[in-house]
Amino acid sequence: VLENRDLQDSIKPQKVEFHSLNFNSTLHWQPGRARETRDTVYFVQYKVYGQSTWQNKDDCWGIQSHVCDLTNETSDIREPYYGRVKAMSAGVYSDWSLSCRFTPWRETMIGPPMVTVVHSNKSIILKLQAPRSPYKRKRGSKIPMTNYYDLLYQVFIINNLLDEQHRVLVYKGKDKVIKIEDLRPGVSYCVVAKTYVPMLDRSSAYSSRQCTVL
Length: 214
Prior knowledge:
Layout: H1 2-11, E1 14-21, E2 24-30, E3 41-48, E4 55-63, E5 67-69, E6 81-89, E7 92-93, E8 97-98, H2 104-107, E9 114-119, E10 124-129, E11 132-136, E12 142-144, E13 152-159, E14 167-173, E15 177-180, E16 188-197, E17 202-203, E18 210-213
Antiparallel strand pairs: 1-2, 2-5, 3-4, 3-6, 6-7, 6-8, 9-10, 10-15, 11-12, 13-14, 13-16, 16-17, 16-18
């Protein structure tokens, strides 16, 4: 019995946590202290905070992976959720390992906007597109994150003659089309943008660089 108890403890999953970007929410964990064997499998359950019964996640029942997609199961974005994982190895089951409470609306990271650059001779025109959630409208298009949050865009310009880190904030606001004027012809400029959520005081990562020579 003691040996079994040791095995149970040593295979118990560690660091069970939700990772979420634009409401694409996955549960992640790490294997227990014991060296993971090929026959170690994991079982995932989830529930809304306050509910008494846990639901099995069928796609993540007896899997070898350390990640489980719970995007559809956490679609009520203002509800708090829990996930939990247990392991089985050599016919022995560990206890459940519980995640922290996860509220998608509060905790998801927002992605950067998509940036398209159209240039004329002394100005750059940018078109910004908000990141999209995984959830769909009735017609099938994905709902943009602007439906869920009051988002601002921050646009930075990098003059390639200067230092790469020298990003200058040239715009902050809600416009989807922005014109940056009074630029020097023949100079290469790069633009990056971020999404900012004032209510949560949180910024996205930078978008990928879009460069152009005027």
